[in-house]
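Suppose you are handed a protein chain with no further information: no name, no annotation, nothing but its sequence. What can you learn? This example shows the usual starting point.
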Amino acid sequence: MQEFSTDCRRCPRLARFLDRVRVAHPDYHACPVAPFGAVRARLLVVGLAPGMHGANRTGRPFTGDFAGVLLYDTLHRYGFANRPVSTGAADGLKLTDCRITNAVKCLPPANRPLPDEVRRCNDYLSAEIHALPEGAAILALGLIAHDAILMTLGLKRSAHRFRHGARHPLSRGMVLYDSYHCSRYNTQTRRLTPEMFRGVFDEIRRYLVRLRQRPRRVR
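A reasonable first move is to predict its three-dimensional structure. Written in structure tokens, the prediction is:
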């Protein structure tokens, strides 16, 4: 498994783009963005990639822009975060039994990573997923995140099609849940409403509660 590094330059187009961003915004993080949260959390949230003025600026996933508004409010509502607002890496926000990452760790031009960039970055996501405990829940925010998760496990997209609210059993007792991405566009056009997003989290919470109630195996 590939260990994540903020010095990664395996995607030439993204590396060159970040070089230009650092010149234009010297106060920005403008490097690959590390995951946020415990390695062996029971919930892994997977987004697309850092946003220009969000995670790319602050250095923390879904922090500092509109995409994090609904996500962190919902995580707080369901007990996965100690506060509902994420403004910066030093804002005191902590996650409980939850980890947030992206399918692509670098800011892509126009928020659109190329397929080969998703593949190059997939080792990092694979390491995160294989480090999860048995029975963990994985939430894919959008189609690209969904497909990147399947890629880490060698699963066919045709057998696990993305659909908001879908549930896909995975290996090691894990379960993949799908949601539309909580982007400004999706929420403002109401493709994704808070009620729809909470509906997915209702399913995840019920699943994790049932998981805790299962008797442990005797070895």
